[in-house]
Amino acid sequence: MFEKILIANRGEIALRILRAAKELGIATVAVHSTADSEAMHVKLADESVCVGPPPARESYLNIPALLAACEITGAEALHPGYGFLSENARFAEILAEHHIVFVGPKPEHIRLMGDKIEAKRTALRLGIPCVPGSAGAITDEAEAKAAAKELGYPVLIKAAAGGGGRGMKVSFSEDDIASALETARMEAKSAFGDDSVYLEKYLEKPRHIEVQILGDGRGGAIHLGERDCSLQRRHQKVWEEGPSPALNESQRKEIGEICAAAMRELQYAGAGTIEFLYEDGKFYFIEMNTRIQVEHPVTEMITGVDLVNEQIKIAAGSALTLTQDDVIFNGHAIECRINAEHPATFRPSPGLINYYHPPGGLGVRVDSAVYAGYTIPPTYDSLVGKLIVHGRNRNEALMRLRRSLDEFIIDGIDTTIPLFQTLVRNSDIQNGLYDIHWLEKFLADGGMDGTE
Which domains does the chain have, with CATH numbers? Predict the structure, then answer.
């Protein structure tokens, strides 16, 4: 096992990794920008190193500074968390060149799954069902029109190197495909430095289902069930739950076993998530995330498996100690992402937290790195924390979530807590009758009108 690990991230995920490392007896090193000098993970780590000024490109994305921090502190391994450099294959290679272990998959798997076109080809080869789409990148308008005609409108134009909803545009007819293609390519170039795009059939009312996997890089791999992440705004997940209210036990088992078998063949190492659109009883692969997910606590709550702990042990060279039969699913869990945003307009709301009171009680977990007196900087994403609840069944989890949201107080800034207080009382949500477009339609129809 490692003696010391450097955490190359910030916020709640940095604190989450720190806690897992300490429970394994591993010393921790926090890195931070000057804007994060008072952050909770910095206060709790055994050592801390400032790696630059507030802009991420000069601090959390500053590879020479991170390498220097590892060298100065003697850290043997680096955990990237999510975002920032977590899916940068070249960064993983550079760490290996400096004899520092990257807590994550092999660089070739990061690179493979980071290219959405190659990822889809690989998924098909591994027997994972995919959305019908173009065979490769679309280079011009004529090629886009030909592919769209073959697939049938509407079609989705997607960035090959993308994620998070950037570089994605829907075309409903030949009349708008040229403009959609141009916009998607410009967004892809701006966000990822690569304007390559491809086409997929656009599904009208799908759900977003993802399967959590763990692999040891030696041909061992298991799945830990699915999460339903269909409540989204601008392709960003807002509410996640598991198991999905849309699946039955046979569907759940079938897609889980397909994913685990694929990862065994790939000899994948670490945690990963295989994401699907699900419509009319069929799964369609969309991408694989080769890192820990924001919503990983949902899986931890229903399986009792510490995913970050497993990541670290696998990176240290351990084979999987869990078999598929060891994974026992228990009850239902729901996660809400609490952001520093106005709950109706989603205007960012950085600033000083005057008072902070998280909810508690049986089956309630809050993953957050904020505290009373902490100032949320305007430089980074707006995630304040995650409220996760667990119940013996979905109804109990919903009631526990309702109670917990009513207890949660964050004074001094706007947060999205009122949005979730509204959603948990909505009959469609209570009955599990939603798809990936539901939330945006709810908001467009004035679902949060009157929220101050």
Answer: 4-103 (3.40.50.20), 132-201 (3.30.1490.20), 207-444 (3.30.470.20)
Q: 297: which DSSP letter?
A: H
**CA angle, 296 as apex, 295 and 301 as ends, to 5°?**
110
Q: List the beta bridge partners of residue 251.
A: none
Rounded CA separation 122/314 (Å): 23
Per-residue burial over 151-165, b if 16 or more Cβ lie within 10 Å, else e, is: beebbbbbbbbbbeb
Q: Quick one: CA torsion of 260, 264, 267, 270, rounded to 10 degrees?
A: 30
The two three-digit tokens of residue 65, written as one number = 């500074």
The catalytic residue among 185, 291, 337, 365 is: 291
What is the reported pLDDT for 336?
98
pTM confidence score = 0.91
Q: How far is CA 152 from CA 45, 138, 141, in A?
A: 54, 16, 16
Pairing relation of β-strands 197-201 and 168-171?
A: unpaired
Helices and strands (H, E) in the chain, number of each type: 15, 20
Residue 14: half-sphere exposure toward Cβ, Cα within 13 Å = 26
State in Å, rounded, how far the first CA of the chain is from the last one.
51
CA angle at 29 for the pair 26 and 30, rounded to the nearest 5°: 135
Among candidates 236, 235, 152, 161, which has minimal Cα distance to 200? Answer: 152
DSSP helix/strand/coil, 447: coil
Q: Mind listing the pLDDT tens digit for each residue in 414-426?
A: 999 999 999 999 9
Cis check for the bond before 243: say yes or no (omega within 30 of 0).
Answer: yes
- DSSP secondary structure letters along 189-222: HHHHS---EEEEEPPSS-EEEEEEEEEESSS-EE
Please identify which residue in the block is written with the tokens 């010391």: 4
CA–CA–CA angle 239, 20, 352 (5° rounding): 55
What pLDDT does residue 192 have?
Answer: 86
What tokens appear for 295 in the block?
Answer: 């919503």
Share of the chain above pLDDT 70, in %: 99
240, pLDDT greater than 90: yes
> For residues 17 and 11, what is the distance between their CA atoms, to the nearest angstrom?
10
Phi then psi dihedrals of residue 450, to 5 deg: 95, -5
What is the average per-residue pLDDT within 27-49?
98
Residue 167 to residue 119: CA distance in whole angstroms: 17
Indicate if 291 belongs to the active site.
yes
Give the tens place of pLDDT for each residue, 104-113.
999 999 999 9
Residues whose CB falls within 8 Å of the CB of residue 85, separated by 6 or more in sequence, listed in order = 8, 60, 61, 63, 66, 91
**Identity (one letter) of the amino acid at 283?**
F
